[in-house]
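The record is given unchanged here:
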Amino acid sequence: MKKADILFGKVVTGFAALCLSGAVSVLSASAAPDIPYGFDSGGEKIFNRYDDTPLSSMAGTAGTRNLNSFYELRQYPGSPPRIPHKIPPAFAAEPYDCISCHGRGGYVAELEAYAPVTPHPENEACFQCHVPRLTEELFVETNWLSIRPPAIGRSQQLGGSPPAISHSLQLREDCIACHTGPAAVAEIRVEHASRGNCRQCHVPLVVTEPVQEFTRNN
Protein backbone atom coordinates (compact mmCIF):
# COMPACT_ATOMS: atom_id res chain seq x y z
CA MET A 1 0.00 0.00 0.00
CA LYS A 2 1.29 3.40 -0.88
CA LYS A 3 2.25 5.87 1.82
CA ALA A 4 -0.25 8.39 0.39
CA ASP A 5 -3.10 5.89 0.77
CA ILE A 6 -2.08 5.10 4.35
CA LEU A 7 -1.91 8.81 5.20
CA PHE A 8 -5.34 9.42 3.62
CA GLY A 9 -6.80 6.52 5.61
CA LYS A 10 -5.45 7.93 8.85
CA VAL A 11 -6.90 11.36 8.07
CA VAL A 12 -10.36 9.90 7.34
CA THR A 13 -10.27 7.72 10.44
CA GLY A 14 -9.20 10.65 12.62
CA PHE A 15 -11.93 12.89 11.21
CA ALA A 16 -14.58 10.21 11.82
CA ALA A 17 -13.38 9.74 15.40
CA LEU A 18 -13.52 13.50 15.97
CA CYS A 19 -17.11 13.69 14.66
CA LEU A 20 -18.16 10.71 16.79
CA SER A 21 -16.69 12.19 19.97
CA GLY A 22 -18.42 15.50 19.24
CA ALA A 23 -21.76 13.77 18.78
CA VAL A 24 -21.33 11.88 22.07
CA SER A 25 -20.49 15.14 23.84
CA VAL A 26 -23.60 16.85 22.45
CA LEU A 27 -25.85 13.96 23.46
CA SER A 28 -24.32 13.86 26.93
CA ALA A 29 -24.80 17.59 27.35
CA SER A 30 -28.42 17.47 26.21
CA ALA A 31 -29.16 14.69 28.68
CA ALA A 32 -27.37 16.32 31.61
CA PRO A 33 -29.80 17.26 34.39
CA ASP A 34 -28.07 20.56 35.14
CA ILE A 35 -28.57 22.00 31.66
CA PRO A 36 -31.29 24.73 31.84
CA TYR A 37 -34.43 24.14 29.79
CA GLY A 38 -35.13 27.80 29.14
CA PHE A 39 -38.59 27.96 30.76
CA ASP A 40 -39.97 31.41 31.47
CA SER A 41 -41.02 32.65 34.92
CA GLY A 42 -40.71 29.33 36.71
CA GLY A 43 -42.37 27.36 33.90
CA GLU A 44 -40.44 24.24 34.88
CA LYS A 45 -42.93 23.88 37.75
CA ILE A 46 -45.55 22.82 35.21
CA PHE A 47 -43.51 19.81 34.10
CA ASN A 48 -42.61 18.84 37.65
CA ARG A 49 -46.24 19.09 38.70
CA TYR A 50 -47.33 16.90 35.80
CA ASP A 51 -44.88 14.19 36.84
CA ASP A 52 -45.94 14.35 40.50
CA THR A 53 -49.72 14.40 39.97
CA PRO A 54 -51.64 11.13 39.50
CA LEU A 55 -53.56 10.91 36.25
CA SER A 56 -56.86 10.55 38.12
CA SER A 57 -56.24 13.84 39.90
CA MET A 58 -55.07 15.53 36.73
CA ALA A 59 -58.19 14.64 34.74
CA GLY A 60 -60.81 14.70 37.51
CA THR A 61 -63.81 16.98 37.06
CA ALA A 62 -65.99 16.06 40.04
CA GLY A 63 -65.23 19.20 42.06
CA THR A 64 -67.80 21.88 42.85
CA ARG A 65 -65.62 25.02 42.89
CA ASN A 66 -66.69 27.88 40.64
CA LEU A 67 -65.70 31.51 40.15
CA ASN A 68 -68.25 32.75 42.67
CA SER A 69 -66.83 30.59 45.47
CA PHE A 70 -63.30 31.41 44.26
CA TYR A 71 -63.75 35.17 44.60
CA GLU A 72 -65.77 34.91 47.81
CA LEU A 73 -62.58 33.88 49.59
CA ARG A 74 -60.63 36.89 48.32
CA GLN A 75 -60.73 40.56 49.28
CA TYR A 76 -60.01 41.44 45.65
CA PRO A 77 -58.93 39.48 42.54
CA GLY A 78 -55.32 38.49 42.97
CA SER A 79 -55.23 38.67 46.77
CA PRO A 80 -54.37 35.57 48.84
CA PRO A 81 -57.54 33.61 49.70
CA ARG A 82 -58.58 33.36 53.31
CA ILE A 83 -58.71 29.97 55.02
CA PRO A 84 -62.36 28.81 54.91
CA HIS A 85 -62.10 25.95 57.40
CA LYS A 86 -61.05 25.31 60.98
CA ILE A 87 -57.33 24.97 61.57
CA PRO A 88 -56.11 22.05 63.72
CA PRO A 89 -54.19 23.35 66.78
CA ALA A 90 -51.05 21.49 65.73
CA PHE A 91 -50.92 23.47 62.48
CA ALA A 92 -50.41 26.71 64.38
CA ALA A 93 -47.02 25.41 65.48
CA GLU A 94 -46.17 23.72 62.18
CA PRO A 95 -47.82 25.83 59.45
CA TYR A 96 -46.17 23.88 56.66
CA ASP A 97 -48.47 20.99 57.57
CA CYS A 98 -50.93 22.74 55.23
CA ILE A 99 -48.92 21.14 52.43
CA SER A 100 -50.05 17.70 53.59
CA CYS A 101 -53.42 18.48 52.00
CA HIS A 102 -52.68 21.32 49.61
CA GLY A 103 -49.43 19.98 48.19
CA ARG A 104 -51.07 17.43 45.88
CA GLY A 105 -54.77 17.88 46.57
CA GLY A 106 -57.14 15.05 47.37
CA TYR A 107 -60.61 14.57 48.78
CA VAL A 108 -61.28 15.68 52.36
CA ALA A 109 -64.23 13.72 53.74
CA GLU A 110 -64.74 16.06 56.70
CA LEU A 111 -65.24 19.05 54.41
CA GLU A 112 -66.81 17.04 51.57
CA ALA A 113 -64.54 18.83 49.12
CA TYR A 114 -61.30 18.49 47.21
CA ALA A 115 -58.36 20.44 48.61
CA PRO A 116 -57.13 23.08 46.13
CA VAL A 117 -53.52 22.53 45.10
CA THR A 118 -51.15 25.35 45.95
CA PRO A 119 -49.05 26.63 43.02
CA HIS A 120 -46.21 27.56 45.41
CA PRO A 121 -45.58 24.66 47.86
CA GLU A 122 -42.02 25.88 48.38
CA ASN A 123 -43.39 28.80 50.45
CA GLU A 124 -43.98 27.04 53.76
CA ALA A 125 -45.03 29.99 55.95
CA CYS A 126 -48.64 29.73 54.79
CA PHE A 127 -50.08 31.90 57.58
CA GLN A 128 -47.96 34.81 56.42
CA CYS A 129 -50.49 35.38 53.61
CA HIS A 130 -53.47 33.11 54.34
CA VAL A 131 -55.51 33.64 57.50
CA PRO A 132 -58.96 32.56 58.72
CA ARG A 133 -61.75 35.10 59.10
CA LEU A 134 -62.54 35.60 62.77
CA THR A 135 -65.30 38.22 62.53
CA GLU A 136 -67.91 39.46 60.08
CA GLU A 137 -67.71 43.01 61.43
CA LEU A 138 -65.56 45.73 59.87
CA PHE A 139 -63.01 47.46 62.08
CA VAL A 140 -63.68 50.76 60.33
CA GLU A 141 -66.49 51.68 57.96
CA THR A 142 -65.29 52.26 54.39
CA ASN A 143 -66.63 52.62 50.87
CA TRP A 144 -64.42 49.79 49.67
CA LEU A 145 -65.45 48.15 46.42
CA SER A 146 -63.28 45.47 44.89
CA ILE A 147 -61.66 45.89 41.51
CA ARG A 148 -63.38 44.16 38.62
CA PRO A 149 -62.45 40.50 38.15
CA PRO A 150 -60.42 39.97 34.99
CA ALA A 151 -62.33 38.71 32.00
CA ILE A 152 -61.54 35.13 31.01
CA GLY A 153 -61.45 33.56 27.58
CA ARG A 154 -60.28 36.71 25.82
CA SER A 155 -58.66 35.94 22.47
CA GLN A 156 -56.72 39.05 21.55
CA GLN A 157 -55.93 38.31 17.92
CA LEU A 158 -58.39 35.95 16.22
CA GLY A 159 -61.46 34.16 17.36
CA GLY A 160 -60.50 30.74 18.64
CA SER A 161 -56.88 31.71 19.34
CA PRO A 162 -55.40 30.85 22.77
CA PRO A 163 -56.81 33.20 25.43
CA ALA A 164 -54.46 35.47 27.33
CA ILE A 165 -53.48 34.89 30.95
CA SER A 166 -55.66 37.32 32.88
CA HIS A 167 -53.54 37.49 36.04
CA SER A 168 -49.96 38.12 37.07
CA LEU A 169 -47.59 35.17 37.34
CA GLN A 170 -46.10 36.01 40.73
CA LEU A 171 -46.67 32.97 42.97
CA ARG A 172 -48.92 31.54 40.24
CA GLU A 173 -46.42 30.20 37.72
CA ASP A 174 -47.65 26.61 38.14
CA CYS A 175 -50.63 26.60 35.77
CA ILE A 176 -51.44 22.92 36.30
CA ALA A 177 -51.98 23.40 40.04
CA CYS A 178 -54.99 25.67 39.54
CA HIS A 179 -56.33 24.76 36.11
CA THR A 180 -56.57 20.95 36.30
CA GLY A 181 -58.18 18.29 38.46
CA PRO A 182 -61.33 18.14 40.59
CA ALA A 183 -60.23 21.05 42.82
CA ALA A 184 -59.90 23.41 39.85
CA VAL A 185 -62.42 26.18 39.31
CA ALA A 186 -64.93 24.85 36.78
CA GLU A 187 -64.85 27.89 34.48
CA ILE A 188 -61.07 27.80 34.07
CA ARG A 189 -60.43 24.05 34.13
CA VAL A 190 -58.45 22.87 31.09
CA GLU A 191 -58.24 19.47 29.45
CA HIS A 192 -54.82 19.70 27.82
CA ALA A 193 -52.45 19.93 30.81
CA SER A 194 -50.14 17.37 29.20
CA ARG A 195 -49.16 19.75 26.39
CA GLY A 196 -46.32 21.10 28.50
CA ASN A 197 -45.27 24.73 28.58
CA CYS A 198 -48.58 26.62 28.83
CA ARG A 199 -46.96 29.96 28.06
CA GLN A 200 -45.88 28.75 24.66
CA CYS A 201 -49.44 29.63 23.60
CA HIS A 202 -50.86 31.71 26.46
CA VAL A 203 -49.24 35.03 27.41
CA PRO A 204 -50.04 37.37 30.35
CA LEU A 205 -52.30 40.34 29.66
CA VAL A 206 -53.35 41.80 32.99
CA VAL A 207 -55.92 44.63 33.07
CA THR A 208 -57.30 45.75 36.42
CA GLU A 209 -59.48 48.84 36.60
CA PRO A 210 -60.62 50.25 39.95
CA VAL A 211 -64.35 50.62 40.36
CA GLN A 212 -63.98 53.94 42.16
CA GLU A 213 -61.61 55.88 44.34
CA PHE A 214 -61.26 54.28 47.75
CA THR A 215 -61.45 56.32 50.95
CA ARG A 216 -61.48 55.26 54.59
CA ASN A 217 -63.32 56.93 57.43
CA ASN A 218 -60.93 57.48 60.35
